[in-house]
Specification:
The complex is a heterodimer. By secondary structure, chain A is of the alpha+beta class. In chain A, the strands form five sheets. In chain A, strands 1-14-2-3 form a four-stranded mixed β-sheet, with helices on one face. Helix content of chain A is 42%, strand content 17%. Among the domains of chain A are: 86 residues, no CATH class; 196 residues, Cytochrome-c3 Hydrogenase, chain B (Orthogonal Bundle), CATH 1.10.645. The C terminus of chain B is likely disordered. Classes of the chains: A alpha+beta, B alpha/beta. The interface between A and B is large, with 71 and 68 residues.
Chain lengths: 443, 260
C-alpha cells in the first residue's frame, strides 16, 4: 500500500482509500521536508449523466439521476423533481410535501448511521472496519448492532415510501406514484420510537470519541428555512453573510476542472476569506447554521454533549451527523403522527419550456440541480453539482494544513491521518464523478 | 485453497458504478455480522481498510468496464478468484453509462468537462463477462439483497443459487398485483424483464422500467408491437428499453434506433 523512494523524495502511496463511497486517490508531495503539492485525485471513471440526460423526458429524470449514487438516491430524486417542478411552477399540497420530507428523513437516518458506525467510528477507535470492531469485544458488537438497527430503521422508511432502499421507484414529478397505505405507515412507528432512544445513545457515544485539534476558519454553507431544519427547501446561507435563492447559485459558485481529478471542483466565485473560495457543506455546516431550527429534544442533546456549537473542528462532524440522526427520527415520528393520506398521489405536471433550479440537503451537503427543458418537457441541458464536488477544494485545503505534521510519521501512520481528514467529509466519490488513493511523495 | 484458509475468503470489487449493489451487502443489517462470521471479508474497500492481497474463494464484482485501467484490473481480479459473481446491471450489462456506446464519447466528454484531454475513458462501457469468465450473474439496478444472501450462501454450500430467471409478470401474478398494462393501460416492461424485484413497480401503480434487464427468452419484438399499439411513440419506446440495461443483447438490438 505504501512505498518509499529515496530520502529527499519519499513517496507514500495508498492505492485506494477505504470506507468512502467511490474511488479516489490522494497525493502529498514533499521536497526536502517541505510540502510541495497536495492533490485529491478522483479516478472513478466518469459516467456522463449530464450528457445522456439530454433528450430524455422530464418524467424519466428522477429514475435516472437516482443511479448517480446508491447511498443517497433520494437526494438526487429530490433535487431533480424540485428543479423540474420549478419550471412550470408546480406547488405540492402540504400532505405531499410532508411525505417527501419523511422520505428524506429515512435517507438521512440510513446514510448517517452507515457513515457514523460503519465508515467513520473505526477511525476514532483504531479499527480497520466496523466488522473488526464488532469482533473485538461484546461491548463493541452491541454498538455495531445498534448502528445496523438504526440504519435499518431509516431504510424501512425509504422502503415503505419509496419502494426499496436503493433506487426507490415511487417518486415522480408532482408527487408520488402511489400513496403509502395507513397500515404500512403505522408499522414504522414502533421501530422509530426505539430509534429515538438509540439515536440519543449515538449522540452521547459520538461525543466521547477523541477529537484531534484541527480547527480552522471555514465558510460553512447550507440551506436555511424560515421555520424548519432544512431538507428540501430554503435559501442558501453561510456564516460569512451569503444569503441567496437557489436560482442565484451559479452567480456565486463556479465549477472548474483540475488535471488530476475526474470530478469537477467547485468554489466561491468571489472568495471572501483566506480560504481562496473553498467552502464546507454537510452535517456540520447545517448544524452550525441551523441548530436553532431543531426540535427541543435535539438541541438539548447537543447541549448535553458539552461540545460547543457552532464548531470549527471537522472531526466533530460525526457528532453533528449523530444529532441529525436524532433530528430525522424525531421529525419522522412527528410527520407520521400528523400523517394524512394525500387526496391524490400526485398533482399534474404540465410541461413548459424554461429553466429550473433546486438545492436540497443530501446527507453529505447541498446538492444543486439545474435543468433546461423545451415546451414538450424534453431535457435540453442538465447541470448537477454534488456535495462532494463542493467539498473537494476544502478537503485539499485540510490536507495541506495537515501535511506539515506528517513529516515525522511512518508512511502507514501518515496515510491513516490523511485518510481520516478526508473521511470527516463522508465523501461520495461515485457522486462526484459521478474512493481514494493516498500518495505522499517526499523529495 | 480451503486448506490454507479456515474460513472462505470473500472479496468485493467495484468498477464503474454507483456503489448501490455493494451497499446492498451492508444493507443486510440482520445478516451482515452472520456473514462476517461465516466468511472472512478479505477485501471490501467500502467497508474496510484491509489491503488487497492473496486469493479469494468468492468474489462479488460491481460495476462495468469503462476505463483502460479497469481492463487490466478485472483480469487481475479474475486470476485471484475461485468463483466470480457479477452483481448488478453495470457489471452484467454495462449499466446506464453504456448509453455512451451509441453516442460519441468525445462529445459526451465535451458536454461534461471543459478540458476533456485530462480524462481517461474507453469509448464503450461493457459488462464484466465480455472480458473474463463469470461464474454467475446477479441482475438488478440495484440487486435484490435477499438474492445476494442466497448467492453467497449457495456458493459457500457448493450449490447453484436459486435465482429464478422468469419474467416480472410471473412475480405480479404470484403477488396478486393487478396488471397495470391490462387494467390501467400503463406501458410496462414486465413481460420481458427478469424477475427479482418482487413486482415492485406494478405494486406501486407504475409500469416496470426494466431495471433487472431481459428475462430468459424475452420476446422483445412482441412487446414492442403491443406498446406501439397502445400509442407509445418510437422515442419513448427507445428510452424505455435503452436506460439501465441498454447494452444487454436483447434490449440492444431491440429495433430502437441508435441515438443520433
Amino acid at each position: 500500500m505504501t512505498q518509499a523512494t529515496d530520502k529527499a523524495t519519499r513517496t507514500i502511496t495508498v492505492q485506494a482509500l477505504a470506507r468512502v463511497e467511490g474511488e479516489g486517490a490522494l497525493t502529498i508531495r514533499f521536497r526536502d521536508g517541505q510540502v510541495e503539492r497536495v492533490e485529491l485525485r478522483i479516478y472513478e471513471p466518469p459516467r456522463f449523466y449530464e450528457a445522456f440526460l439530454r433528450g430524455r423526458a422530464a418524467a424519466e429524470v428522477p429514475d435516472i439521476t437516482a443511479r448517480i449514487c446508491g447511498i443517497c438516491p433520494v437526494a438526487y430524486q429530490m433535487s431533480s423533481v424540485h428543479a423540474l417542478e420549478n419550471i412550470p411552477g408546480v406547488v405540492l399540497p402540504p400532505e405531499l410535501r410532508a411525505l417527501r420530507r419523511l422520505l428524506y428523513c429515512g435517507e438521512w437516518i440510513e446514510s448517517h448511521a452507515l457513515h457514523i458506525y460503519m465508515l467513520h467510528a473505526p477511525d476514532f477507535l483504531g479499527f480497520e472496519s466496523a466488522i473488526a470492531m464488532a469482533q473485538a469485544s461484546p461491548t463493541y458488537a452491541d454498538i455495531v448492532r445498534r448502528g445496523l438497527r438504526l440504519k435499518k430503521a431509516g431504510n424501512s422508511l425509504v422502503n415503505v415510501i419509496g419502494g426499496r432502499e436503493v433506487h426507490p421507484v415511487n417518486v415522480r414529478l408532482g408527487g408520488f406514484y402511489r400513496i403509502p397505505r395507513a397500515n404500512e405507515m403505522a408499522g414504522l412507528v414502533e421501530e422509530l420510537k426505539w430509534a429515538r432512544e438509540a439515536a440519543l445513545q449515538t449522540v452521547r457515544w459520538c461525543a466521547t470519541l477523541p477529537f484531534p485539534d484541527f480547527e480552522d476558519d471555514y465558510e460553512f454553507v447550507a440551506l436555511r428555512h424560515s421555520d424548519e431544519y432544512p431538507m428540501n427547501e430554503g435559501r442558501l446561507v453561510s456564516n460569512r453573510g451569503l444569503d441567496i435563492a437557489p436560482e442565484e447559485y451559479p452567480d456565486h459558485f463556479i465549477e472548474y476542472q483540475v488535471p488530476h481529478s475526474n470530478a469537477l471542483q467547485s468554489r466561491r466565485r468571489f472568495p471572501c476569506g483566506a480560504d481562496d473560495g473553498a467552502y464546507f457543506v454537510g452535517p456540520l455546516a447545517r448544524w452550525n447554521l441551523n441548530a436553532d431550527r431543531a426540535p427541543a429534544l435535539v438541541r438539548e442533546a447537543a447541549a448535553a454533549t458539552g461540545i460547543p456549537f457552532p464548531n470549527r473542528n471537522p472531526y466533530t462532524s460525526i457528532v453533528a451527523r449523530s444529532l441529525e440522526v436524532l433530528l430525522a427520527v424525531e421529525e419522522a415520528l412527528r410527520l407520521l403522527h400528523q400523517y394524512q393520506p394525500p387526496p391524490r398521489p400526485a398533482v399534474d405536471y404540465l410541461a413548459r419550456a424554461g429553466v429550473g433550479h433546486a438545492i436540497t440537503e443530501a446527507p453529505r451537503g447541498i446538492l444543486y440541480h439545474r435543468y433546461e427543458t423545451d415546451a414538450a418537457g424534453v431535457i435540453r441541458n442538465a447541470t448537477i453539482i454534488p456535495p462532494t464536488s463542493q467539498n473537494q477544494r476544502q478537503m485539499e485545503r485540510d490536507l495541506k494544513r495537515l501535511a506539515p505534521t506528517l513529516g515525522e510519521l511512518s508512511n502507514e501512520e501518515a496515510a491513516l491521518k490523511a485518510e481520516r481528514v478526508i473521511r470527516n467529509y463522508d465523501p461520495c466519490i461515485s457522486c462526484a464523478t459521478h474512493f481514494l488513493k493516498l500518495k505522499v511523495e517526499r523529495r | 485453497m480451503a486448506e490454507t484458509h479456515p474460513k472462505p475468503r470473500l472479496g468485493v470489487f467495484k468498477f464503474a458504478s454507483c456503489d448501490g449493489c455493494q451497499l446492498s451487502l451492508l444493507d443486510c443489517e440482520d445478516e451482515l455480522l452472520a456473514v462476517a462470521g461465516a466468511v472472512e471479508i478479505a477485501y471490501f474497500l467500502e467497508a474496510t481498510r484491509r489491503p488487497l492481497e492473496g486469493e479469494f474463494d468468492l468474489v462479488l464484482v460491481e460495476g462495468s468496464i469503462s476505463s483502460p485501467e479497469q481492463l487490466e484490473q478485472i483480469k487481475d481480479v479474475r486470476r485471484r478468484s475461485r468463483f466470480l459473481v457479477t452483481i448488478g446491471a453495470c457489471a452484467t450489462a454495462g449499466g446506464i453509462q453504456a448509453l455512451r456506446n451509441w453516442g460519441h464519447v468525445q462529445e459526451y466528454l465535451q458536454i461534461v468537462y471543459a478540458q476533456p484531454e485530462y480524462i481517461q475513458t474507453l469509448a464503450a462501457s461493457t459488462p464484466i463477462a465480455e472480458h473474463v469468465p463469470v461464474d454467475f450473474e446477479l441482475r438488478g439496478c440495484p440487486i435484490n439483497k435477499r438474492q445476494l444472501v442466497e448467492v453467497i450462501s449457495a456458493f459457500l454450500a457448493g450449490r447453484r443459487p436459486n435465482v429464478p430467471n422468469h419474467a416480472v409478470c410471473v412475480e405480479c401474478k404470484r403477488a396478486g398485483v393487478v396488471c397495470v398494462m391490462a387494467a390501467q393501460g400503463i406501458p410496462c416492461l414486465g413481460p420481458i424483464t427478469h424477475a427479482g424485484c418482487g413486482a415492485l413497480c406494478p405494486s406501486y401503480d407504475r409500469g416496470c422500467y426494466g431495471c433487472f434487464g431481459p428475462s430468459k427468452g424475452a420476446n422483445v419484438l412482441a412487446l414492442t408491437h403491443q406498446l406501439q399499439s397502445m400509442g407509445v411513440k418510437d422515442k419513448a419506446l427507445e428510452h424505455l428499453l435503452h436506460t439501465f440495461n441498454a447494452w444487454a443483447p436483447e434490449f440492444r438490438e431491440s429495433g430502437a434506433k441508435p441515438a443520433e
